[in-house]
Design brief:
Elements: H1 6-39, H2 50-78, H3 83-111, H4 119-147, H5 149-157
Helix pairs in contact: 1-2, 1-4, 2-3, 2-4, 3-4
Length: 178
């Protein structure tokens, strides 16, 4: 695609804004998760079972991973890496994230913290909820984009003869637009 095309610039801006908003939501939670994980590192109550110790470590690693995931994606966007390169990076990172969240759910179920303070358990639940929501959203967007749903939706919603959103060049049905 032509980098000077308005549609290309608009999509790039929308992608940047979407990732910035996503991290504005998750960054404070990740910093709080890291803080809480380290705060209860030596807590007697948390140290009673191996599951709660593992949940503590899981929370710290999950929060660090979310921050690193965002940094990698933003570097790829800022360096204007090709969309294929971003997808090749994003799919495995996202799959690892979903698997890690599954491990977190298992640790939450098995961990059953019986302390007066259950902040570690609550923060783990918050991180799982938000991270899984973002991960599932990424999978849906990538899947829809790969299937050409975005370009077909743009064609249906367009009020102009030549909409700003141009279809993917590999879609034979959309070639009639050009």
């Amino acid at each position: 695609m032509d980098p000077d095309n308005f549609d290309t610039k608009l999509r790039f801006l929308a992608t940047q804004i979407a990732w910035i908003v996503a991290m504005m939501v998750i960054m404070p939670i990740c910093f709080a998760g890291i803080y809480i994980g380290t705060q209860y590192f030596d807590d007697k109550c948390v140290r009673q079972t191996s599951y709660t110790i593992a949940l503590d470590w899981w929370l710290i690693i999950a929060c660090i991973y979310d921050i690193i995931f965002w940094i990698i994606i933003m570097i790829l966007l800022c360096c204007k890496a090709r969309q294929t390169c971003r997808r090749v990076m994003m799919w495995p990172l996202n799959i690892i994230n979903v698997i890690w969240m599954g491990i977190g759910i298992w640790l939450l179920i098995e961990g059953q913290i019986r302390c007066q303070h259950n902040t570690l358990w609550v923060m783990s639940l918050v991180v799982i909820s938000i991270t899984l929501t973002l991960a599932v959203s990424i999978v849906i967007v990538l899947g829809c984009s790969h299937l050409g749903v975005c370009s077909k939706l743009a064609k249906c919603l367009s009020f102009e003869d030549k909409p700003y959103y141009m279809p993917i060049a590999t879609d034979p049905e959309m070639e009639s637009w050009e």
